[in-house]
Amino acid sequence: MSFRLLVFLCLVIVARCGNTLSIERRSNHFVKLPVVHSTNRQVFAKVYQDKRAIATVPLAKRADVAYYAKLNIGTPPQPVFVQLDTGSFELWVNPNCTTLRGSSDVRFCEAIGHYDPSSSSSSIELTTTKTLRYGIGSATVQYVVDSVGLAGTDTLLQEVQFGVALDTVDEFSGILGIGHGENLTIRYKNLIDQLADQGATSTKAFSLALGSKSEQEGVIIFGGLDTSKFSGTLQTQPIIPARDSPDGVPRYWINMQSLSITPPSGETKRYPNTSMAVFLDSGATLTLLPTRLANAIAADFGAEATDSNGFYPVDCKFNDQPGTLDFAFVGVIIRVPYREVVREIQTTFGIQCYLGISPSEDFVLLGDTMLRSAYAVFDQTNNAIHIAQYSNCGSNEKEITAKMTLGSTKGDCEAPDFEAGNANSDPLSLDNGTGVGSNDSTDADSSASTFDILGPYQRLTIWATLFGDQDDYSSPYMSTAHANDRQTRAI
Ligand SMILES: *[C@@H]1O[C@H](CO)[C@@H](O)[C@H](O)[C@H]1NC(C)=O
Ligand SMILES: *[C@@H]1O[C@H](CO)[C@@H](O)[C@H](O)[C@H]1NC(C)=O
Ligand SMILES: *[C@@H]1O[C@H](CO)[C@@H](O)[C@H](O)[C@H]1NC(C)=O
Ligand SMILES: *[C@@H]1O[C@H](CO)[C@@H](O)[C@H](O)[C@H]1NC(C)=O
Ligand SMILES: *[C@@H]1O[C@H](CO)[C@@H](O)[C@H](O)[C@H]1NC(C)=O
């Protein structure tokens, strides 16, 4: 008995030693995480034991909502999915699901996981609270310090500060803000800071491939990049310094040179006056452009005006046409196929299509409807975004080192075939009553108004607040005028 126990203990010790050694010997300082689309039935079904609960989440209604990463928080680890957001700066978990109106939102919210600090032996609850305001919704959080593991990797960060929601409004998941962190937007180290600080990455840069609508999965690599996820050569776009940016906040603002459309006829048309600062926001479903420009693009998709929800309804036939919207930056044009910019939404009246672009006089941003056609390295260390055309030809991952000139890194892939149209149709639009989503049509939501179903799709996390609270960090660039301005802009 005692001998067996001894052997067992030895095995445990050996296993632990081996593990520690493998971490220490690891030569690559990068961490790869899958980016899970909220529509990915396999992933969300596998992760949770309660198959029935998942089966009733009408994911088909969430055609292109948001992109998630899985974290393991605390000791023992508690798995939680959080929305990846380049537009904000902080991590928080535990939305209040009971405040949501749509039953599908409630179920999704309940399925993404919950963190209980009192069940974690490594948690430290702080007394500080803060209200984070987003373009849509808000979260009042209390800060906690605990270990955070990146699911599926051996990276376990110690003593990471993040928020645990006390209450939320219109939020159906926690958010992982991967914008600039300590000393720029907040007073403590955010996840990007901690990854570099604790040696998991050797640079404050990460690469993001959201994945196409039909792929249902993308990849984020902290401290690394995957040359088999783009064609052409990465082109360096300097991040506009906060003081020169449209809102005075340190964000991923870069200059767009022009915007054009290449319809199936092949004749490219350039929209006038489209050289402007744009902000890359993975936390926004839609791309927001100045009204005159959004209207001009919508007109080319046959939409004369926005509907009462502020969306341009378009014919679903555009999903099958081989046209592109072409976003030009220094040295590179990112071509966004029609099928990626057209959103298909299941409503009570069947599938309806909308342009993934909305008019905005306040803020110009490239959201998921544009970003999933780009491969982008967000490089805080060099204050630059390095971008190329997204194309998926396998995986070839590399660490980003200080010596590396990212701006000339070649991709392994061929450019996508933009003439092909929609050969692989979005499986979501084909769901005709098979698979886990089969009960969608009998879902309680089918009696909800179109607005209820549409509402949550427009994720906007751009206005994560930097102002107003005692514990906020005030950067010298930020004036009170900006703060007030932003308050009134909240939608
Ligand atoms: C969640 O929201 C409901 C409805 O507004 C409220 O009654 C409840 O107190 C909230 N729960 C928490 C933990 O804040
Ligand atoms: C923020 O500034 C403090 C004081 O200068 C410094 O010790 C710390 O390393 C800085 N943090 C980051 C993430 O640069
Ligand atoms: C483009 O900008 C120029 C100069 O600012 C202006 O004269 C012109 O009307 C603008 N065109 C459009 C279509 O907005
Ligand atoms: C519709 O469902 C049937 C089985 O019920 C299947 O054979 C068929 O391929 C489906 N059609 C599409 C377009 O998915
Ligand atoms: C659909 O839902 C009903 C009622 O909840 C249930 O009885 C039925 O088995 C479900 N069908 C499928 C295919 O899951």
Automatic annotation (TrEMBL):
Q: Which InterPro entries match?
A: Aspartic_peptidase_A1 (IPR001461), PEPTIDASE_A1 (IPR033121), Peptidase_aspartic_dom_sf (IPR021109), SAP-like (IPR033876)
Keyword Signal listed? The answer is: yes
This protein's superkingdom? Eukaryota
Keywords, sorted A to Z = Aspartyl protease, Hydrolase, Protease, Signal
The catalytic site is made up of D85, D281
CDD domains xref list: SAP_like (cd05474)
- Tell me a Gene Ontology molecular-function term this record carries: aspartic-type endopeptidase activity
Outline the extent of the Peptidase A1 domain: 67-388
Q: Where is the signal peptide?
A: 1-17
Q: Name one GO biological process term.
A: proteolysis
Pfam families noted in UniProt = Asp (PF00026)
Chain intervals for the UniProt region annotation (Disordered):
417-447
- The answer to whether keyword Protease applies is yes
Family as reported in the entry's similarity comment: Belongs to the peptidase A1 family.
Descriptive protein name: Peptidase A1 domain-containing protein
